Amino acid sequence: MEKIFKSLVIASALSLSAHSMGGETYYGGGLTAMDVSVGRIEKTLGTIHGLVGHRFNEYYAAETRLGTTINDNNPRVEKFGGFYLKGGRHVSETIYPYAIVGYTIGSFNGSSDSAPSYGAGVAFSMIYDVKLNLEYISYLNKDGKEFLGFSLGFSKPF
């Protein structure tokens, strides 16, 4: 698990160097009301995540995200992270709906797992190049473990 998260950090650094290839590199974060289900345990937890991404063109972007639980409640999502591709199209000057797919690694109460991820969201352009994002994502759904929920976040170019 430790090697995987080190790999995520390295990938984040590499995505910053992608800025020299054109497009736009950005950073951001978000808060998620994450529904967690592991076996018979079901709970909604508050999580926080940070992200670094690169927008290749008007339609496609790639992101690396890392997050954890905000509160110390039991159960606890110790950490989660992954790589994601976003695709979308502006429907107006300020509204950008998108689909997101990727792969998430999550650690929950001492056990870890990984699985494909998917979701959808909409980004709203605000002032000073800030985007406000509302997103629903299923981060992990495998072998009786499920992490999914609604997220409110932001992103801004470097």
Largest beta-sheet characterization:
8 strands, antiparallel, barrel
Return the CATH architecture: Beta Barrel
- Indicate the proportion of strand residues: over 45%
Summed up, the helix count is 1
Task: Round the mean pLDDT to the nearest integer and report it.
Answer: 85
Describe the strand arrangement of the main beta sheet, using strand numbers. Answer: 1-2-3-4-5-6-7-8
Quaternary assembly: single chain
Overall geometry comes to elongated
What does this structure look like?
The chain has 158 residues and is mainly beta. The protein has a single domain (2-157), classed as Porin, CATH 2.40.160. 10% of the residues lie in helices and 67% in strands. Strands 1-2-3-4-5-6-7-8 form an 8-stranded antiparallel beta barrel. The protein is elongated. Mean pLDDT is 85; it is low at 16-20.
Summarize, please:
With 158 residues, the protein is mainly beta.
SSE arrangement:
Blueprint (H helix, E strand, L loop, with lengths): L1 H16 L6 E15 L2 E15 L4 E10 L7 E12 L6 E14 L2 E15 L5 E12 L2 E13 L1
Antiparallel strand pairs: 1-2, 1-8, 2-3, 3-4, 4-5, 5-6, 6-7, 7-8
